[in-house]
Amino acid sequence: MSGRRSSGSRITEDEINELISKLQLLLPEARRNSMARASATKLLNETCNYIKSLHREMDDLSDRLSNLMLTMDTDSAQAEIIRSLLLH
Amino acid sequence: MDDSSDDAGTGAGTGTTAGIFLPGARKRVKLSLVKQQQPREIHWKNPAQAKIYNLRLINSLRNLTIDGNGSKSQSPSSSSSSSSITTTKTAQSSSVGTKLPPSRAIKEAADSALAMTARGQTRWIRAILSRRRQMRKIVIAKPKVMKKWRRVEKEGGGGGGGRGGEEKKKKVKAKLKFLGHLVPGCTKASMVDLLEETADYVAALELQVRTMKALSDALSSASNVTTPPTLPPPFSS
Predict the structure, then answer these.
(1) Region annotation Disordered: residue ranges (chain B) (predicted)?
(2) Is the pLDDT of residue B176 over 70?
(3) Cα radius of gyration rounded to whole Å, chain B
(4) Which of chain A's residues have a Cβ under 8 Å away from the Cβ of B157?
(5) What single-letter DSSP state applies at residue A52?
(6) pLDDT tens track for B75-85
(7) What is the pTM of this model?
(8) What pairs with residue B21 in β-bridges?
(9) Do A51 and B198 make contact, defined as CB atoms within 8 angstroms?
(10) What is the ipTM of this complex?
(11) Which residues, listed in sequence order, are joined to residue B30 by a DSSP beta bridge?
(12) List of long-range contacts for B89-93, beta carbons under 8 Å, 24+ apart
């Protein structure tokens, strides 16, 4: 906790921008734009939206899954598991 | 000739420090923590990991429903494959009596399966796991990495000279705060930490969505039609 300052631990603006641009590469939109947007706020915005949409998709999928699993019995569950393993 | 053990720290950055023994020099170079960045994201894109996650998910889901459709209590998931370094390998042996709405239970199972598949000690993983710990007793080994991150945190704080003026910085900060609320366990993380966590989390979420989609597709096709489901067209053409 005391000040043992290792060199390079100070966070500069450049580092932040670098990290943000790295984040940009993960977003599916950015791959289409081929790195046209460099503004930090826009990127952060996109990231937030993307995460929110992923969450929503997750909710949707889990709803679907829960409905499906409720109406299924265990035997076909086994078959389904085998099948999905094969598909991968 | 020296019998130097060439113990190069390869293997995708497992563990916090790795030592490289240079022959004859006896120098030990500690790979810094930063090196873990690369392997971590590749980790999520690894198809083997996807398979592991898939299996784990299926297992835990199956255990969910075996207990009966009435009360969705979470029984032990029996995944023994290569789990992460720190997290629980044996726990989750008690069952919760509370009735969760099924979709919520599935989501939680998916999240914990994801967290268990993860390697490394990112914050969101620990947040998810500690959320489950509140329901039952799980011992999570607190990694020592955390302390080193803290050191960076103390000295960081404000950025360098203002490049874009005050307004932009405020906006960026607001967005970062919002992002911190989205990623579990990152409400009070520093900028650097938060961005790294986000990258990791996004990759993990993508894997999760992909897996669940495949699973639900397989399920729906299995329950609808008696004929075996058609394989998706291969990507390589």
Answers:
(1) 1-20, 68-103, 218-237
(2) yes
(3) 22
(4) 11
(5) H
(6) 333 333 333 33
(7) 0.59
(8) B28
(9) yes
(10) 0.73
(11) B19
(12) B91/B136, B91/B137, B91/B138, B91/B139, B92/B132, B92/B136, B92/B138
Tokens of B120: 């490394």
Q: Bridge-partner residues for B19, per DSSP?
A: B30
CA atoms within 13 A of residue A3's CA, in its CB half-sphere? 3
Helix, strand or coil, per DSSP, at residue B21: strand
Burial (CB < 10 A; 0-12, 13-18, 19+), residue B48, is exposed
For A40, the domain range is 13-87
What is the spatial distance between Cα B110 and Cα B60, in angstroms, rounded to a whole number?
8
Q: Please judge whether B55 and A57 are an interchain contact, meaning their C-beta atoms are less than 8 angstroms apart.
A: no
Token output for A87? 């598909």
Give buried/exposed letters for B182-191 (b at 16+ CB in 10 A, else e). Answer: bbbbbeebbb
| Spatial distance between the Cα atoms of B5 and B7, rounded to a whole number of angstroms | 5
Task: Return the pLDDT at B63.
Answer: 67
A62 with B110: CB under 8 angstroms?
yes
Give phi and psi for B19, each to the nearest 5.
-110, 140
Is A3 a domain residue? no
| Within-domain flag for A7 | no
Question: Which of B152, B145, B155, B91 has its CA nearest to residue B123?
Answer: B145
Mean pLDDT rounded to a whole number for chain B: 60
B73 phi/psi in degrees, rounded to 5: -95, 150
User: CA-to-CA distance for B144 and A60, rounded, in angstroms?
Assistant: 37
Residue reference for tokens 């790195």: A35
State which amino acid sits at residue B148. Answer: K
**Cα(B168)–Cα(A38) distance, rounded to whole angstroms?**
13
Taking the CA of residue A18 and the nearest CA in chain B, the distance in Å comes to 10
| Chain B closest-CA separation from residue A13 CA (Å) | 5
Interchain contact, B105 vs A45, CB within 8 Å:
no
Task: Quickly tell me which residue has 């067209």 as its tokens.
Answer: B233
pLDDT tier at A85, thresholds 50, 70, 90: low
Domain total of chain A: 1
Residue A54 domain flag: yes
Question: Is A66 domain-assigned?
Answer: yes
